[in-house]
Amino acid sequence: MRIFVVGYGVVARSFIDLLEAQQSVLYQQQGLSPRLVGVCDSTGAAVSERGLSADELRAAKESTGTVAGVAGHGVRTVDAAQLIAECDADIVVEASPSQMSTPGRSIENLKAAFRTGKHAISVNKAPLAAAMPAMLELAEFNGVQFRFSGTVGGGTPVLNVARECARGDEVTMVRGIFNGTTNFILWKMHSEGLDFDTVLKEAIDLGYAETDPSADIDGVDAATKVVILANYVLGRPATIGDVKVEGIRGLPRERIEEAAQRGNHLKLIGEIGEALSVAPQEVPIGDPLDVPASLNAITLSLKASSDITLIGRGAGGIETATSVMRDLLDIWNVIGGRS
Amino acid sequence: MRIFVVGYGVVARSFIDLLEAQQSVLYQQQGLSPRLVGVCDSTGAAVSERGLSADELRAAKESTGTVAGVAGHGVRTVDAAQLIAECDADIVVEASPSQMSTPGRSIENLKAAFRTGKHAISVNKAPLAAAMPAMLELAEFNGVQFRFSGTVGGGTPVLNVARECARGDEVTMVRGIFNGTTNFILWKMHSEGLDFDTVLKEAIDLGYAETDPSADIDGVDAATKVVILANYVLGRPATIGDVKVEGIRGLPRERIEEAAQRGNHLKLIGEIGEALSVAPQEVPIGDPLDVPASLNAITLSLKASSDITLIGRGAGGIETATSVMRDLLDIWNVIGGRS
Question: Do B237 and B231 contact (CB within 8 A), yes or no?
């Protein structure tokens, strides 16, 4: 199976490493022999029909600043969509950086894959937030598989577990903590009695938060995950515009203290009920959703059965790479182990 | 698809109700039209090629004390294995009461199904605790499907989630609270400062614990789930004899108080690591495994990724019935929607 990876950030590199490390296991257990036939970053690409190794890509990136530095296989281009359309990969992994404000390029990349009959895995949330119903439809129309497990919960298989719970029952409501950075901030504000700006600065210094933390603290990242769950688990065609969003920017410490007096912790909760929303909500201390530090958690309410909660780390390059691997195996199984 | 149900307790009745309630959805979404062709309880059976309704079974049980009271379809027999072998069902649901000390009959029931080419779903833990490696082998040898989702976690899809996590990664360790009754007892001893005997009596009065609570408080029930997880998720052929078991019978309140002074809660933990064990262990307050009341929880440690925890109610007739339904759909999909 020939694989083309868009992007060369932490997730992409971890996935490429994992692919090499598991090469023999994948073949023995699944009959799958993946070959990495192309990788592109923001300034160029490496393309090789015989396959690229993790080492040569890493060396090229370190010495020349781009994977296009791989000897004999470099392509200087910024047009990933064209490369995708023209390459002979079976599957495209869209792992370019998620930028909510400009999903255009990643949408074009996925469209190029679908139109040319290639399956796709996206770990990039932006195209789903902006246009998930259309992307799902386009994949179906072209008869290709489309997966995106890594977009919600990192390595925690939130989407598949939620679908699993929905089988033989009905998911009536979803509530969750879908952003580790904001959970860390709220947890730290409470446990150490600090104010918002102090903790945010610390989170940025520690690398828990981006230098521009807007997507996290304004609730946009959580809202994206609400969109993906609503579409995938509940079959509700939604985009980011359908989510009512309130973040935690500048949240006064008093709100946290008042919640504590009522026996609650304040959490940034994404909710799929009658409506879709993201907002600070109080959660009883000791509730399964009352998770510390930067953990994520999701509670599914079911019609026949009782609540189910899944807790895990929501991010991390290696974790998310395992999600891409699961998606790859899913697609391999669905297409019947061909090619 | 013709279904034969062994047992007519809460899970069996809930499953039969669910089957009727979802009849049209199952057909529309999955092309599956299940027909209940037989049910047996401890003194007799009802068998009908044209199908049995939930109402007639319930009415017969209420008026005559056995499902054999169904007019025109009653069979007075206590030999479920023979009925299973002779009936023309496609799938057998073994939902007779789990009695760890006498798994013989349920093992015979499953064997009868396998030998006569019938798929099986067991919600009865006893045959798995005693002979899971052999049962798995026998099902495979006879080319039939065998599922048992309801044996661990009730309606919480613990087994499938654990397998899902194992795909594309490796489960290195499993720790969990697999028995709701003992979690309730330990939680109540701590939160209300009561001693073991007082809480146990209350749990029995409230119906949380069986009149003979041995399987719960001696750790045998939890050990059974350890066995099932070890076999199914980690591929380790084990039976109950391989688990080192220590329960909580007569546990002194001081142990709980000492744990609390160290910032921990005492929990009955089932563990699959180097060895298989069940024993009271201290869990840090606020840890994902630190769940209150009668909740169950499982934490999977993975090789590449970080820990994942699943929390849910571990028991309940309706919950467990949804697991049987998931197993039924799994089998339906695996066999390609035939018959």
Answer: yes
Residues of A in contact with B161 (CB under 8 A): 157, 161, 164, 310
Write out the CATH class of domain B2-154+318-334. alpha beta
Q: Are A277 and A289 in contact (CB under 8 A)?
A: no
Annotated domain spans of chain B: 2-154+318-334, 158-314
- Which backbone phi and psi does B178 adopt, to 5 degrees? -110, 5
CATH 3.30.360.10: does it fit domain B158-314?
yes
**Percent of chain B topping pLDDT 90:** 83
Handedness of CA A9, A14, A17, A23 (dihedral sign): negative
Q: Cα separation of B268 and B180, whole Å?
A: 10
Number of other CB atoms surrounding residue B211 within 10 Å: 6
The CB density around residue A78, as the number of other CB atoms within 10 Å, is 13
Phi and psi torsions of A151, nearest 5°: -75, -20
Partner A contacted by B235 (CB < 8 A): no
pLDDT of A52 higher than 80: yes
Q: Tell me which fold the domain A2-155+318-334 belongs to.
A: Rossmann fold (3.40.50)
Which is the catalytic residue, given A111, A225, A267, A303? A225
The beta-carbon neighbor of A288 closest among B291, B304, B328 is B291
Asked whether residue A339 carries a pLDDT value surpassing 70, the answer given is no
B10 touches chain A (CB under 8 A): no
Q: Of A186, A209, A309, which is closest to residue B308 (Cα–Cα)?
A: A309
> Average pLDDT of A25-52?
94
Residues in chain A with CB shorter than 8 Å from the CB of B18 are 168, 304
Q: Do A322 and B304 touch (CB under 8 A)?
A: yes
Tell me how far apart the alpha carbons of residues B289 and B285 are, in angstroms, rounded to a whole number.
9
- List pLDDT tens digits, range B61-92: 999 999 999 999 999 888 999 999 999 999 99
Q: How far is CA B69 from the centre of its chain?
A: 28
Return the amino acid letter for B69. G
Contact B325/A168, CB-based, under 8 Å? yes
Residues of B labelled as active-site residues = 225
Chain-centre distance of CA B130, in angstroms? 14
Q: Which of residues 144-163 of B touch A (CB under 8 A)?
A: 154-157, 160-161
Q: What letter represents residue A91's amino acid?
A: I
Q: Which of residues 173-202 of B touch A (CB under 8 A)?
A: none
Tokens of B232: 């199914």
Instruction: Give the pLDDT confidence score for residue A300 in this predicted structure.
Output: 96
Say yes or no: do domains B2-154+318-334 and B158-314 share a fold.
no
How far is the alpha carbon of B125 from chain A, nearest alpha carbon, in Å?
20
Collapsed DSSP state (helix, strand, coil) of residue B5: strand
If one counts every other C-beta atom within 10 angstroms of the C-beta of residue A339, the result is: 9
